[in-house]
Every structure is written in structure tokens, then in C-alpha cells.
Design a protein that fits this description.
This protein is α/β, with parallel strands linked by helices. It contains 16 helices and eleven strands. The chain starts with a helix and ends in a 15-residue tail after the last helix.
């Protein structure tokens, strides 16, 4: 860790108990609101809230009809954010998302005027993102990383905050295109969405005619949301936990001396530095959700699968042996000790 980073961590004041409790109360409003709309999915809702508090992009994967789209729409209503939805289809073009210049009559002459696309919103729902072609998927790359888009050499800033919440169907279904690694790496979380219990299904069909969720109203103002962002940034990341995050991400690479045997055999490419940054940020958000002013090892473990699972590129032999990326992350968590040797001086944790 650099001297500058260490200095910043030591001089930042810890959140007071009052600030932690106030933040937890605001987060509770968001979680309770989502639970009103999405029944029987408490863990999913908390993970979504963690990702939003860390200002990250999110990819929800699951079979059609499990409530992925409704979850995103409910989040928009509860936060009062500008919301746009794009249904990704094979005939969708990049300009349909980003916008395009249109020839117009201005001041007696014809000029190209840029017309903004649906990406110019606080929250963009990219519905069934893997049904569009790779060319169209790539239109999101600059926006997700730099919060801006460039069209014909002209750069346009996106609204703040800006989130991409995408849904996708399992790649085994017909008519899907797998997302490239560069785009997957820009998603802070990938969350697998599963079905609910029979008891929850009974509650849905008993209380919701035609499956329609209740109407939701805003529970957090823009100022309160910004306060939560600031509170997450102020959650202390102890040096020992930062060291653990760095060793955990480093162990995903097959050339690392910390990599377990399964990683050496089945992982082709490990997680990027962006994964370490995402792991630190979402661990801070998880700690605040739990009512703590500092990050613990348990907070890192809670979000590790969502951060690392989609960033590991497994060898073809892994599938033959029955290994998935989620199982690989769980193996890493079991093999990398919480307390380890100090990192070399040239390894930096942000």
C-alpha cells in the first residue's frame, strides 16, 4: 500500500455511532421498500442495495419471469431516479442506446444536432442484455467505466449518479450472445436470481391479482442518497482487510503462489485490479448495511462471489470436471487465509 493511501486512511475520521445508525435507518427504508415489491428474496434485495450504495453496475441473471425487471423498476421508484428501459434485441443498434446526430434546420442552415439516447438517465435498465449483438453491447463500455459517451468525436457527460442494471438469460437459452470479458469486468456485481419457495408463491397468487406489485413511492431523497454514498466512502478499511482483499484477488491468477491447486488447473485468466477496487467498495457498503463503521473479513466474504464469480475465465476442462466460477470463488475463500504475509512494496491496494 502506498504512503499516500495509508495517510488518507489514517487521517479520515471514523463514522460516529449516530452516523452509522442514521445510515442504517435510511438503508432500511430502501430494503423494506424492495421487500414490499419483491417477496421472499431478502438476500437478493440486500445484495442489490449493497451494489447501489457502492455506486456499482449490476448484472442479474436468471430464467424469465423471476422478477428481475420488476426489481430494477422498483429500485428506480424508491430512489426517485431518472429511469429508462431498453429492451435488447438482435436488431438493436448502438445509436438506439447512446443517441445519434440528426440533420436539422438551424438558423437557416442544416446542421447535425446530437439527440440523446436512453442512456442519459440515472438508472438504465438493459433488459435481456445478452440478446443484442456484441457490437451493440459494446456501446455501454465507455459509459459504464467513465460515465460519459463519445459520438463523432464529441464527449457527452452522463447524469450523476449513473447506474447500469442489466438482466440476462442463461446463455444456454436460444438467441443469446455471451457478454465479452471486457464488459463483464465493468459490472460490479453479477447476481444469480433463483425461484422462490412454495410459500412465497402462495402469497403472490393470493395477494396479487395478475401478479402486479404494489405502487411504490420515493423513500430516499437525492440528498439522502448522496449522504449514504459519503457514509460508505467513510467506512474504514483496516490494513489487514485490505491485505486480505489483495491476496484474494491475486490468488485468482494461476501464476500466483497463493493460488489453490484447482485454480492452477482450471482458471485461464484471473480477476483484474478493477475487481479489487469493487471488492473494497462493496465490502464497505456491506459493513454499513450491517451497522459497522469498519470493514471486517466477513463483509469481504459476503460479497466475494458476486464480485469475482463473473470475472474468472475458466478453462474448458473445468466444465468437464463439473467446476463453475462460483465454486471456484468458494474454493478461494476456503484456501486464502484471512491473515497472511505482507504484500511486496510494488503491490498497491486502493
Amino acid at each position: 500500500m502506498s504512503d499516500l493511501t495509508t495517510s488518507a486512511m489514517t487521517t479520515r475520521n471514523l463514522l460516529s455511532p449516530e452516523e452509522v445508525e442514521r445510515s442504517r435507518e435510511m438503508i432500511g427504508r430502501l430494503v423494506d421498500g424492495l421487500e414490499t415489491a419483491i417477496l421472499g428474496q431478502r438476500e437478493l434485495i440486500e445484495l442489490v442495495s449493497i451494489c447501489v450504495l457502492a455506486r456499482g453496475h449490476m448484472l442479474l441473471e436468471g430464467l424469465p419471469g423471476l422478477g428481475k425487471t420488476e426489481l430494477v423498476k422498483s429500485l428506480s421508484s424508491l430512489l426517485g431516479l431518472g429511469f429508462r428501459r431498453v429492451q435488447f434485441t438482435p436488431d438493436l443498434l448502438p445509436g438506439d442506446i447512446v443517441g445519434s446526430p440528426i440533420l436539422q434546420e438551424l438558423n437557416g442552415s442544416r446542421q447535425l444536432v446530437f439527440h440523446k439516447g436512453p442512456i442519459f438517465a440515472n438508472l438504465l435498465l438493459a433488459d435481456e442484455i445478452n440478446r443484442a449483438t456484441p457490437k451493440t453491447q459494446s456501446a455501454l463500455l465507455e459509459a459504464m467505466q467513465e460515465r460519459r459517451v463519445t459520438v463523432m468525436g464529441e464527449t457527452h457527460e452522463l447524469p450523476r449518479p449513473f447506474f447500469v442494471l442489466a438482466t440476462q438469460n442463461p446463455i444456454e437459452l436460444e438467441g443469446t450472445y455471451p457478454l465479452p470479458e471486457a464488459q463483464l469486468d465493468r459490472f460490479t456485481f453479477k447476481i444469480n436470481v433463483y425461484g422462490v419457495s412454495s410459500g412465497t408463491l402462495q402469497e403472490i397468487i393470493s395477494k396479487r391479482r395478475h401478479g402486479l406489485p404494489p405502487k411504490l413511492s420515493e423513500v430516499l431523497t437525492q440528498d439522502e442518497l448522496e449522504q449514504l454514498f459519503d457514509a460508505v466512502d467513510a467506512v474504514h478499511l483496516p490494513e489487514a482487510v485490505a491485505n486480505y482483499i489483495a491476496r484474494l484477488v491475486n490468488a485468482t491468477h494461476p501464476h500466483s503462489q497463493d493460488a489453490p491447486d484447482e485454480c492452477l488447473r482450471f482458471v485461464r485468466y484471473g480477476a483484474s485490479p478493477r475487481a479489487a477496487i469493487a471488492l473494497a467498495g462493496t465490502s464497505r457498503a456491506a459493513a454499513l448495511l450491517a451497522g459497522k463503521p469498519h470493514v471486517g473479513f466477513d463483509d469481504v466474504r459476503r460479497v466475494a462471489v458476486c464480485v469475482l464469480g463473473h470475472r474468472l475465465v475458466l478453462d474448458y476442462s473445468a466444465r468437464l470436471e463439473g467446476w463453475t466460477s462460483v465454486q471456484m470463488v468458494e474454493r478461494l475463500l476456503a484456501s486464502v487465509p484471512e491473515v497472511g504475509r505482507p504484500l511486496p512494496r510494488d503491490v498497491e491496494v486502493r
